[in-house]
Amino acid sequence: MVGSLCVCMAGTNDTYLTTHKEFTMLLTDKTAVIYGAGGSIGGAVARAFAAEGARVHLVGRTRETLEAVAAHIKDIGIEGAEVAVVDALDESAVTEHLARVGDVDVSFNLVSRGDVQGMPITEMPVDDFLRPVLNGTRANFITARAAARRMAERGSGVVLTLNSGSAHGSPMMGGTGPADAATDSLVRNLAMELGPRGVRAVGLWAAGIPETLTVEKLGKVNPDLNEAAIQGILDQLSSLRMTRRNPTLAEITATAVFLASDHAASITGTFVNVTGGMFPG
């Protein structure tokens, strides 16, 4: 399908559209289910997918944030974003929701895991350390399995996920590293099993996206942070990257769109490193 919509991102705000005479949408006629669509990254991905022609299903635990994303998608001239309040940790709820959705081409898990950071592992309570590992593994497994079963019947589809790449080693990150490592392994094993049935499994490593690092959001994982501390973190992160700059939300969503599209049909069983080279990928 040839259209006139091209998705871009502006600063820390929402998606905006620019006009091109000839532009083929990358996700035309695809159905995408986005878990955690009410969050900063999830919302941006949902808007980008919709602008690229996908039918998007916005899934999460808070209707208000999901409805806000759906409203913005409608504001930019795209109809049909569906909202569903579903807990990705609830196996039955996920399965029942997908039964209502029907055919699924893209399943993207972006749910929060309850990470706690900012203290040495030796001082961390057991529950705080294990929470992201257990929640992250459970949510990714439940959503991936439910989608992959439906995809395998049709012989096509892609399961996507994202983490910070902290399995490579990041101090003061608590259970984030082990949680990321579990997700990395899950993606690779899914890809090996599902590949012969036409289904891909791919992940993105993204760490320190400035638009998502606010006092409000980071306070959920480290309540001692303020604006100055966050800016210090961003400056430090940029100095650690090969590019010497932090990746933008626009770059993350553009990569996600590509991986969800047929242009990435040969990419599976791996994570795409969009950290700006914070570590070799």
Characterization of this structure:
The protein contains eight helices and nine strands. It has 281 residues and is α/β, with parallel strands linked by helices. The chain has a single domain, classed as Rossmann fold. The strands form two sheets. The protein has a seven-stranded parallel β-sheet with strand order 5-4-3-6-7-8-9, sandwiched between helices. A two-stranded antiparallel ribbon has the order 1-2. Helix 4 links the parallel strand 6 and strand 7. The chain is globular and about 45 Å long.
In whole angstroms, how far apart are the ends? 34 Å
- The ordered string of helix (H) and strand (E) elements is EEEHEHEHEHEHEHHHE
Q: Write out the strand line-up for the largest beta sheet, numbering strands in chain order.
A: 5-4-3-6-7-8-9
**Molecular shape:** globular
Question: How does CATH name the architecture?
Answer: 3-Layer(aba) Sandwich
Helix content: 40-55%
Total domain units: 1
Uncertain ranges: 1-22
How does the helix and strand content classify structurally? alpha/beta
Approximately how much beta-strand content do the residues carry? 15-25%
Q: Say how many strands there are.
A: 9
Mean pLDDT across residues: 89
- Rg from alpha-carbon coordinates: 18 Å
User: Which fold name fills CATH's third level, the topology?
Assistant: Rossmann fold
Q: Under the CATH scheme, which class?
A: Alpha Beta
User: What is the makeup of the main sheet?
Assistant: 7 strands, parallel
Per CATH, the superfamily is: NAD(P)-binding Rossmann-like Domain
- H/I helix tally: 8
